Amino acid sequence: MKKGTMEERIYDRQVTKLSLSCRVVDEQQIERHFNAADLNELYRFEPDGDNQEIPPVPKDRLLAELWKRQKQWIFSYHMHDSLLKNKEEEELTEEERKAAWEEFENEKTASIQTGFSAFFPTVEQMNNLLNHAKTQLTVQNPELGEEEVMQLASQRVQETLKRIRKGGEYYQRPQGGLPTRRMIRHISHSQA
Q1: How far apart are CA 129 and CA 47, in angstroms?
Q2: How far apart (Å, rounded) are the C-alpha atoms in residues 89 and 86?
Q3: How far apart are alpha carbons 74 and 54 in whole angstroms?
Q4: How confident is the model at residue 172 (pLDDT cuts 50, 70, 90)?
Q5: Exposed, middle or buried, 84 (CB in 10 Å: 0-12/13-18/19+)?
Q6: 3-state secondary structure of 188
Q7: 121 contacts 128 by C-beta, under 8 angstroms
Q8: Where exactly are the structural domains of the chain?
Q9: Taking 70 as the threshold, does the pLDDT of residue 189 lie above it?
Q10: Residue 184 in this model has a pLDDT that exceeds 60
Q11: How many other CB atoms are found less than 10 A from the CB of residue 133?
Q12: Which of 32, 59, 63, 97 has the fewest beta carbons under 10 Å from its own?
């Protein structure tokens, strides 16, 4: 969840509602997560003014009677299901759908790093690859000494990188500097 986003505000309100319900219904003492100003913001009422429109006659007779008798207390109403209706006038045309797919594909390919630097992992990623290869070798060959494991692991990583560069495959830099599954798969298959 990112700071300052709508998602954070919704989450904060949900926590407030849950803690309030625990306090009232379950009589629990929940830690206060928000200050008084934050909570007062939730209770602030700002009416829209006197722009009350005359709504269409509701299909529900009880609602129609209630509206007729208590309209000074009811600003407006809507049927909940109408909020979830498919609006055909807002559907995309064939050209708009094609353009959206093209934009999606362009964004997808742009997020993959290409060019000269795409074939070279960062130092952190190289260390992660090397550690992965060392772990595999140690598990598979417990009789090997530390120097032998290091030498074989270095060879495997180098072979993997050569194979990737030679094959024209690109190296996508993942988040956090961890090796990709493709890189790990290459190291694992280098054993043969």
Answers
A1: 61
A2: 9
A3: 11
A4: very low
A5: exposed
A6: helix
A7: no
A8: 6-43, 116-189
A9: no
A10: no
A11: 25
A12: 59
pLDDT, tens digit, 9 for 90 and up, residues 154-164:
888 888 777 76
| Residue positions counted in the chain | 192
- Angle CA(162)–CA(153)–CA(123) in degrees, nearest 5? 65
Of the chain, the end-to-end C-alpha distance in Å amounts to 44
The 3-class secondary structure across 156-173, one letter per residue, is HHHHHHHHHHHCCCCCCC
- Would you give the DSSP letter of residue 34? S
Token pair for 74: 């009811």
Predicted confidence at residue 163, as pLDDT, reads 75
Look-up of token digits 């992992």: 121
Structure tokens at 125: 């990623």
CA distances from 128 to 121, 164, 165, 182, 187 (A): 10, 17, 19, 14, 12
DSSP state of 84: G
Token look-up 């609602």 returns 63
The answer to whether 190 and 162 are in contact (CB under 8 A) is no
And the tokens for 14?
């949900």
Both structure tokens of 57:
């006659």
What is the C-alpha separation between 149 and 130, in angstroms, rounded? 10
